[in-house]
Fold Alpha/beta fold hydrolase.
Amino acid sequence: MITRTLDRRLRRSGGSAVFPILLALVLMMAAWIWWAEGHPHAERRLRVLVQDQLEHWFPETMAPLDGWHGLVLRVPGVAEGDSAARPRVLLVHGLDEPGGIWDDLVFVLGAADFEVWELRYPNDQGIDRSTDLLAELWSGMPADRPVVLVGHSMGGLVVRDFVTRWRHPVDAAAKVEGASVRAVILVGTPNQGSEWARLRVWLELRDHFAADSERRFSLFAGLRDGTGAAKVDLRPGSDFLRDLNARPWPDSVPIRLIGGLLTEPPEAMTASLEAISTDIEAAKLTEALHDWWSSLGEGLGDGVVPLASLEIPGAPKPLLVRASHRGMLARLRPGDPEPVAIPHIVATLEKWADP
C-alpha cells in the first residue's frame, strides 16, 4: 500500500516537472514561427549563416557529395559519335524528395533509347546554392550532345535558375562551359511560389525516414541537406522568385510546363446540378456552383502547387493532367497505371529529339 502511494506521488511529481518543459518548448516554437512569418529575409539569412558555420566546423560531415548527392547516370546511351544519338536527359528532383520520383519515367526513357542522368542535391539549402552545385558539376556530363532538363516541383526552379543565370543567360556570356541546354520541361513547378513550403518540416521527416541504403545516415543527415532556406525561397513573393521571374528566358531554349489538377466535379454532382437547373430553372445558380467548384480546383491545383503558380510570363500555357503532385510522375502502388504525365514528357522529348 505504501509502495503504491509513493509510486503514484513520484509519477505525479515527475509529470508536473515535465509539463513546464513541454510548455516552454511549445511557446518557443510558436514564438519562432511568429517571428519567421513576419521576417522572411532575416530568417533566410539566419538559416544560411547556420549552414555556413556548420560547413566550416564539420567540412567532411557536411559535404554533400557523399555517394548519394551528385550527378548519377541512370541509363547509359548509345555509343559516342553515333549520328542517331538523342539529346541527353537530366532529371532534377524537388524539395525533400526521398527517392523514387523518377523511377517510372527512367524506365520508359530507357526503353525509348534516351540516355538519362539525375541530379541529386542538398535540397533544403537555398535554391541558388543547389543551382550553383549543378553548375559546378555540369562539366561532369559529356558535351558532345545537348541536354534536355526535366525538373519536378522545386527542381524546376533549379533548372530555370541554371539556364538563365549560368548556361544561357540572355545578353550575357555563359558562366559555365559544357553541353548546351536543348530544352526544358517543368512538372508541377511552383514558378510563383507555394504556401505549402511552410510545412517543410513534415517533408523533412518523410525524406529521412525513407528506406534507401544509398543515403549516408547520421545525426547530420537532415542538416547535410541544408537548414531550410529553400522553404523561404519557395514562398510567394520571395526575393529568389522575384529575381528569377525578372530574368528573360532565352529564345533558343524551348520550355514545356506540365501541371496537375487534383479535383474534378464528380458525376453525381454534375447530374444533381443539371437536375436543379431543369426542375427550378435556376441556371444562374448552377453556373455559380460550377464556377465555385472550378475555382476550388484551381486553388488546390495538384494539392501542392496551385494552377496560377505554374505559369511563367511569356511561356506557353501549362498542359494540365488529372493527378496529384507526385502522382503525375510516380505510382502510389506497383500495380497502378502509368503516371499520366509520363506519356506527355516522352512525346515532347521525341519531338525535340528530331534534328
Observations:
- The chain has 14 helices and seven strands.
- The longest strand covers residues 181-187.
- The two ends are 89 Å apart (CA to CA).
- Strands lie at 70-75, 88-92, 116-120, 147-152, 181-187, 255-260, 319-321.
